[in-house]
Amino acid sequence: MREQTGVIVGVRVTHEDATVDQLEAAAADSQRHAVESLLSRRFIEEAFVLQTCNRTESYVVAPDHETGLSALSPVVADVPEDVVLEMDHEESLRHLLRVGAGLESIVLGEDQILGQLRDAYEDARGVGGIGTLLEDGVTKAMRVGERARNETAINEGVVSLASAAVRLVNRECALAGETALVVGAGEMGQLAARALAERVDRVLVANRTVPHAEHVAETIDVDASAVALNAVEAAVESARIVVSATGSNDHVFDADTFAESGETYVVDIAQPRDVSADAAEVPGVSVYDLDALESVTEETRAQRKRAAEEVEEIVDEEFDRLLAQYKRKRADRVISAMYESAEQVKAAELNRAMASEEFDEAQRDVMESMADAIVSQLLAAPTRSLRDAAEDDDWSTIQTALELFDPDFGPDSNDPPAFVEDMAVEDIPEGMREEIPASVLDQLADD
User: Fold this and answer.
1) In this protein, which residues make up the domain named Glutamyl-tRNA reductase N-terminal (predicted)?
2) Is 53 one of the annotated active-site residues of the chain?
3) Does the predicted model carry a pTM greater than 0.85?
C-alpha cells in the first residue's frame, strides 16, 4: 500500500440539502468510473466515491486542501453551489464515521449503508483508489457502524427505506388482500419484497435478470412469482402497489405504463429515479419519491434519538482514536529514517573496529549486541518525543527531524518529489512551490 501522504478532501450532495433531481445530477454512472476519473487528475493519490439513493460523496487524497477541491470541482459542476458541502481532512473523516453509524441516513441508523460502504470500498480498491489514508478512514467508518448497531438500539424500528416505503403506502390504502409489484432484485428490492410480504396477499418481482427475481420470490413467505422487466407493464395492471428500486440509469416507468393501471400507489426509491415525473399526472396514480419518505422516517428518528446520542459518543471516541492513529503514522516516517541513519553509522563503526583487530565469533556477537543496545537507548527518548510531537501537531519538530535524518527530504535534496516528476513548474500549485528546493524547481524549468 502506498505511503501515507497528503490530506483527505471531500465534497458531498445529500438528501438534507438537495432535491432528488439534484442528487441525480451529481451521480456518476458508476462508483468505479467516478474513482478512476478522480485518480486521473494531477496530484491525486487516492480516491473514494459513495453513491446511494440519497447521497453522492467523493473524497480524494491530495497534497493540500485547495488542490483536492480543484480535482473535485467537476464532480459537482452540475448542481447549485448551495447544496454542495465541502469537507477538509478532519471533517471528511468525521463525516465518514457518521455515515457508517447511520447518523446521516434518511432512516436514522438504517443497516443498508454498511453494505453500501463496503461495496464502495471494494469498487475504489479495485481500481487502485485506496491507499493508506483512505484505508484507515473507510475501514474505521465500517467498524464504527458495526459498533453502533451492536452496542445501541440505533437500528430498531423502521430500518430501511424499503420498510419506510411500505409504511408510507399503508397510510394511504389498506394493503391486506392486495397485489404488490417490486421492481429490482437487488438489496433494496429484496427488503421491499420482505416488508410487503407481511402485509399483502401476493408479490410480483420484476427484474432484468429473471433468475434473480425468482430467487427473491422464493425467499419471501407469501404467494410470489417472478416476471421479466419487459413484461412490467402487464404486471402493473394487476398490482395496486408498486415499489421500484432498480439500478437503471434510465426510467423504467413512464406515464404510458400506468395508462390502464387504475388506482395505483407507486414508491420510487431508486437513484436515479425509475419513474418519470409525468407518471404522477395519470389519473388515479400516486407517486412518492425519497422526499416523501421524510415524514415516515421522522417517527423512527424520534424513537432513536436517545440511541443516536450514544452513537455520537462512539463516533467522538473513534474519531479521536483515528486522528491519533494518523498522527502516529506521520511520525513513523521520521522514526524509521532516524533508525536507518543510526543503523548505517553503527554498521560502519562495527566494520571498522572489527577490521582492525582479530575477534572470534563470540566476541563479535558481544560487540554487536552492545552496539544495538547503545542505539536503542540513545533513540528511545527521541522516538517518544517525535510521537508526542505528532500527537500535539508539532510539525516543526517533525520537519526538523526529517531534515536531520532523511537524505531525501529538505533543502539538500536535489531530486524532485515523486508527485512533481515530469511536470512543468507552472503546473505546481503555489502553496507547494515553497516546499520544493530552488535547485529542483530550476531542474524542472530546464526540463
Assistant:
1) 11-152
2) yes
3) no
